[in-house]
Batch of 3 targets.
Target 1
Amino acid sequence: MAVYTEVSDEELEAFIADYDIGEVISCKGVAEGVENSNYMLRTDGGDGAYFLTLYEKRVAAADLPYFIGLMEYLAGRGISCPLPVHARDGKALRTLAGRPAAIVTFLDGVSVRRPRPQHCAGLGDGLARLHLAGGGFPLRRPNGLTVPHWRPLFMHCASRADNFAAGLRAELEAELTVMENQWPANLPSGVIHADAFPDNVFFLHDRLSGFIDFYFACDDMLAYDIAICLNAWCFEADGAFNVTKARLMLTAYQAVRPLSAEEMAALPLLARGSALRFLLTRLHDWLFPVDGALVKPKDPLEYLHKLRFHRDISGPGAYGIDA
Amino acid sequence: MAVYTEVSDEELEAFIADYDIGEVISCKGVAEGVENSNYMLRTDGGDGAYFLTLYEKRVAAADLPYFIGLMEYLAGRGISCPLPVHARDGKALRTLAGRPAAIVTFLDGVSVRRPRPQHCAGLGDGLARLHLAGGGFPLRRPNGLTVPHWRPLFMHCASRADNFAAGLRAELEAELTVMENQWPANLPSGVIHADAFPDNVFFLHDRLSGFIDFYFACDDMLAYDIAICLNAWCFEADGAFNVTKARLMLTAYQAVRPLSAEEMAALPLLARGSALRFLLTRLHDWLFPVDGALVKPKDPLEYLHKLRFHRDISGPGAYGIDA
């Protein structure tokens, strides 16, 4: 939730004049998106409804061609996601108020705050289609938040971890060692969304209508994307793991893209690692809040609980599937 | 800039189902509005674009029928402003997530951050039309932030005023005494917007397209509304008073509703009082920030500077008009 950059009238007008989308009839800062400044734009031409994003410093400018190119590639292969709009100079990634900026089409749909089972099924189906559609995308972006990056994050937080929760430092240290030793290397890989939390998945009439916010997308194991979603979609607010949701998500995924035996066997470890990743980044954001962020840091301990769940199960059968 | 209240999917769906506006296809928290939670709503029926407001505690629930009724009254008399939408039960003011809530039509237009002279002319014309259209509105709401309310605000801040700026306490005290002794009593009165800052006035192609945010509207002297606008629209960012803007605003106003000699003569005092009012409320918000507010308090000293300008001029001729 943030609007970091104020855009002057003249700057906005001049910026929009470079596109074939008519003139601005409304432009409102949107209270979402932690990393960037987002505006809902209505114009009297083109589709009439757009989203304008100014990329703030937390998003590396060098990665923007990957993100913009990926949305365009996926949209061209039938995935419902924001489509970058090209200006008359042919460019979709431009500059506004001194920041990299892009206009994308507005995607109808609402994110669900409390996913129900049918939403998890829709997500599983959509995620598998996204994984297939991403095949052949020519740009590369290694995951910047995977195992080798976790220990430096941990080191930064380690001295204060026990103040946050008793014994947390030792538990994180042990988990890191497990992950560094056991993280799989040869599972099927490709483009993953890497942040398909309920905020970033839209539904219309309970059917998935699209994915947004590709700013963590990268190349990694496809099953790791599923692991992220197991954590983000299948736990209830009270911490209970909802096996029905997990079963529906995984079944719908496999109806489009069946998992190999190796992927299936790796799921608990991937989910445990994914929980560790979000635990570490949340802990870091909690201990070192970003200056100017308008959003309250999220509770790291939610992910400690999830980590322990995946550590303690006997295998992927705990996700409600035959494995 | 604030979204205070999170609305659950189920609550929103049930709320919207009570209106004849179709189903929600998008709902985004808007990063504006200090007092309330605002959402841009797109639906597959009706006008398709709406604004949903949840009224937070800073807006007195008892005043809401006045605000909602006023927007409906003004819209019915040709003023472009958000039109409250009635649910099937006939009510425009309802309840969502435990708060009073209303849906209004979405008003096209953009607010200008740096008004140019033609915007000031458009505002003058529009404000005069608003004042005429408000005639006969049957509800009453006394101004809750006029002279008698200023001293209590001052008393609350007085002990810390000099820490904020040297000599401020004595200067505020002296100004208060002037206002309490000289504030006019018998000027033409009626419905005033009372907060027609550039944020709250929309333009399309540099023509005024409407007024929003009527949550300070009240009964008071019409010329006081002009005085508020002189302060909010006619000073440059560097503090200079732009007499061209003031002249255009006042000339356009008078082409619709001529000012009496008494109103004209009172303008400098009203503008000085208006500056004191915003100086006091800003100082109060600075010294006692609202818990949970996501907006940075505005600089009180901007209004000290404006106050001094109006105190030091020789008469309304300084606003560029024959007086």
Target 2
Amino acid sequence: MSKITKQKKIGLVPGFKSAGIVSGIKASGAKDLTLIVSDVPAIAAGVFTKNRVLAPSVIYNKRRLAKVEKFKAVIVNSGNANACTGPQGMEDCKTICDSLAKELAINANQTLIASTGIIGVPLPTPKITSAIPKLANSLSDKGWNQAAQGIMTTDLVSKMAEVRYKEGKKEIVLAGIAKGSGMIHPNMATMLGFAFTNANIDKKVLKKALQLATDASFNSITVDGECSTNDCVLVLANGLAGNSKINGNGASYKNFVAALTDLCQTLAQKIVRDGEGATKFVTIAVTGSRSLKEARKAGMRIATSNLVKTALFGEDPNWGRIVCAVGDSGVSLNPEKISVAIEGQMLAQAGVPVQFPKKKVDRLMKKKEIQIDVDLGVGAESAKVWTCDFSYDYVKINAEYTT
Amino acid sequence: MSKITKQKKIGLVPGFKSAGIVSGIKASGAKDLTLIVSDVPAIAAGVFTKNRVLAPSVIYNKRRLAKVEKFKAVIVNSGNANACTGPQGMEDCKTICDSLAKELAINANQTLIASTGIIGVPLPTPKITSAIPKLANSLSDKGWNQAAQGIMTTDLVSKMAEVRYKEGKKEIVLAGIAKGSGMIHPNMATMLGFAFTNANIDKKVLKKALQLATDASFNSITVDGECSTNDCVLVLANGLAGNSKINGNGASYKNFVAALTDLCQTLAQKIVRDGEGATKFVTIAVTGSRSLKEARKAGMRIATSNLVKTALFGEDPNWGRIVCAVGDSGVSLNPEKISVAIEGQMLAQAGVPVQFPKKKVDRLMKKKEIQIDVDLGVGAESAKVWTCDFSYDYVKINAEYTT
């Protein structure tokens, strides 16, 4: 595989145009409506929230993806999640997709939709449908920055990533935008991720690749341990790269999974860095696990522990809380084999405290990016997850909002 | 069954003596060593942490309870959890129990032990063994207040409860002490509960009763969703009430379960009220569930949601976060059947928002005790759980401690 080239901004993504505008949903007057269109019909795949209360947009996309072969457009609004809105919610989804399809002269079945923002409040659908002509007119192959802005809620910065690599003589481009900041204010925000690629790939293979990439990225981060009604990751592949169709389990498939995983990890890490109230970016690397699944499970339990996260905010090398979180994760372990290091400094080895140099560790804990290594000592599998610390500002942001 | 009489302080518990003294483990000089002794050998049962990293005291008690029929003493230290301390940890448990047994002229097998406080630091066992003669000399049938103080860590108040009821002509007395405040600073504290009764009861029946009572009390509360290495609930029953032995599933068994549950719920609610940084006491009542287990699971997911807890701190009637937490709990549900009320005011009915009187709800949200009712609408089972809100002070308490 050729080296993956990574960019913070998105350049041209062959065959895709995007836009992000103000439709008037947000009282702040910020951008709140995003559209991405593929010039040619594109295959698509999605990964959705495991929450059992699903927003209509999630149900709508699941149904479409199960029935329709190719798609042309993804529309996303921010400022209102259209969740817990009763039967009207699904009607609003359909109205918007129909209106968009009419404007773009495509079939309504070829549209996908996502919403993020306040829940339990009916979507101001007329504002969206009225803005669709302007939205379509704003489409540009340089519209990614606007598109990324249009999906933000409490995010402080817009989140974009791009990776490129060569498959034979063809250049495969993958671009993505995301929004996150945990699951949050107002009411609850949502993790949304959208990836667009010119790769020529089989639909089932794309679905498998997206699940793998999502598990290693968006499903391996946490800001506050919450899982929203609207969480959604979509990928569209329009085939314009002209590569031989990616199929099966061969090298070209592995290359694509690596590139998509890289893209999704970059976006996921941006979500963690922008976590509400976060002052530290924390990587948790679990090794010596019986399985990849258990390594992730142990890592995510540490990453969601309020006690670990407040200790990180307090710059306290509190390895006991880490061991306790691992013990609470339910994974296979032997307490006498667990080792914990922070920023390379061993704190506990095989279950026994290490006499560590206090001044050095105090200095390490002040770093803005911290890696925690946990070796379970019972297997050969490993996984990395990412989280942030837990500060006063998280409580402030989430307590001060009033419906 | 005769009416249960409840007391905040513990009176005489026939055949039990208790003490709490300063052994010097805590730098603050506060009480840190507690002893409860039964005049006659008592049967015992325990419920322990589900964390896979177990403190030596937990392992010690599990082994003893499996092998030994009757017990005479429970010793508890605070200020040091004796957890993650390597093989020395179990040696320290044995040394203390041996020393206590010698002092009391009983068999070491008849002792149970618990520890709570900092983890990863060797227990200062000589301080404890040196204090044992004084501890034994302090035993008194009026020692409960001291005993409750000796097990405190970050608790702001000591926690005691007593219930009495008549079984035929005999008076059954149950007394309990507990400590909690979540799982917490310094390093992590622990939930400990100890109950003592004069009931004459079969050992297996006592174990079953304790599990039921614990599930409906200590396992139905949360301060911060953490589960420690040392969590432990023990009950001793010395039979001195002289009632016909409680056996099987009859009325006397049900009476005892009700009384023990009442005792444990009172103690558990005291732990929640004293939760670190808590400003509100929150009851979550889940109804319409397919099973008791699912009702508790849904309730506990709401109770551990940082978003729900910060909204409560912010006095925001954010029912969307509640529905989302239920959806994330994994229980059987139908989003179109979920109803949510706070303090009796319906906020969402059958999945659809209710137009509620804002000023009235604002006033309700300012209350210090809040009940959230969630009806799942899919069954006939119900459960209550208790939690507190999540304030700046939780973060402060847990961030500012430095090892």
Target 3
Amino acid sequence: MIKIALDAMGGDFGPEVTVLGAMAAVKELSNVEITLYGKEEEILKYLTNNERIKVVHCESVIDMGETDPIRAIRKEKDSSLVKALESVKNNENQAIVSAGATQALVVGAHLIIRRMKNMHRVALAPIMPTLDKRGLILLDVGANVELRPEHLYELAVYATIVAKLYLKRENPKVGLLNIGSEKGKGREVDNEVYELLENSELINFIGNVEGVDIFTTEADIVVTDGFSGNLVLKTIEGTAKAMGEMLKEEIAASLGGKIGYLFMKKNLRNFKKRLSSSEVGGTLVYGLNSPVIKAHGSSDARAIYNAIRQAVLFTEANIIENVNKELEKIVQK
Amino acid sequence: MIKIALDAMGGDFGPEVTVLGAMAAVKELSNVEITLYGKEEEILKYLTNNERIKVVHCESVIDMGETDPIRAIRKEKDSSLVKALESVKNNENQAIVSAGATQALVVGAHLIIRRMKNMHRVALAPIMPTLDKRGLILLDVGANVELRPEHLYELAVYATIVAKLYLKRENPKVGLLNIGSEKGKGREVDNEVYELLENSELINFIGNVEGVDIFTTEADIVVTDGFSGNLVLKTIEGTAKAMGEMLKEEIAASLGGKIGYLFMKKNLRNFKKRLSSSEVGGTLVYGLNSPVIKAHGSSDARAIYNAIRQAVLFTEANIIENVNKELEKIVQK
């Protein structure tokens, strides 16, 4: 049995979707046991099946718009997020899933679950859609606005293990986000990262990847600092939204467009779905002693189910243990 | 008469499009005189009308893929780019347009036309499409990988004058590209820029702008360092391309899609046009003693015409003189 802690109050829709997501997970995954953390009376409104699902009542909730996450984590000991994190720390559960405020989850996991011994930073690492539907890992997208080269290197090693064991890529290719394809492009920090990755035996480095190639690169992993990664992630989201609007406007601009629309309604709906998935599933938080999955704030029950599934696969694959082994090789040098 | 120097050899298609663009410009703009710099025999193949068009023969061409632009500018004295730049420096022409290698143009303009007295950096500042078709200025997109806050501030002042006199915005709004909307987000450098812009009387600062809002922000100008700006520019381009491919795939996936396509062919063509215009017209190079316009490498004759038109409007509006006056106010403080 894999035991997952689920922050039932996190996300824009709270228990209404988290409870349904949990019930879907126990139905489809025979080896999962879920504990829901949150307001019992609200959870019980939606919980119609409690096979392999437990409920732990929590008095409070950390707000989605929390601006001082460190204070919130330290003060709100009875919140659903803190109690769920504590359960992982105490080995009652093996991994945590939350759709709550990102910074509160990252800070809370940092303070309670703690960083792995040989990791110096945590990172947010979503899986981005690619044109060939294979997907790639982009990191960091916001946990660290700036990153020292040696810390980014550790994160690249972590991502390599995830790509191998979780995405099943044979010899995962790592690219460095940059503003030119040739070596020597970018800032001083990018050049230092380039050197480190190029000379590492633990990394299959393929050089720089530009923003224009983010959907078509052969890289399985693209690394950068949290400021740059967040810019790219958000720009993709903004561009996709704007493109969707533009397409709507152009179709509505003539009768031919409107008639054509009737024929290709379904096709356009599929297109919209591909546009809107700026990330595939939940975002993995790298660097902690247990798996931490951040589900989208706007997650529906299906997205919560997917995030739970990710947590299960992540735990089964022993990612963290394997990363620890790899990092020992760096430390021993 | 406004006198424009045109690097006839620059761009992916050379004289075949630059000459046609120049002829279109003299036809549509009664106050422009153009000098074409390049290989005479190639230019004359396409030049069927030489009213207000002169040709200056140049022996060599700086390659589009030039990797050492400083060396190229210093050595290739007889290249079309260097001769065109020299003509502006010597006041034979008032502005230059080139679709050649970006870095060669920036470095060449820097070395030959020289920086304005009170500007400490040059910047590449394209006009980006917005959902409402108004357009906004994004800078820097690659001239400086890193920028000191006070230099970014000077560039914001420059952009404000361009938005007023060239884009005809009344009190242009300036936003700072960042990874959160609240003050205090981002790197140390972003916070320093925020302070400077917020406290300036020369700038109408509206705070942070995130990547997700780049098509919908109310800002007329979005400022950042050249690394971040280039990432955003290229990510928009890559996303738009990928979205176009995805739409094609989805439409081709069913008969309904294919029939619908026949009805909305024209609409989809218009959509594609909006997708592909990752920039509006040429990119202005800020900070030099004369107007410098970088046309897209893949420019067709229409795009060359548009870049010439930009150079004319830019010159007519006395942008540089007006920027000088504004910058004096900073210096006097």
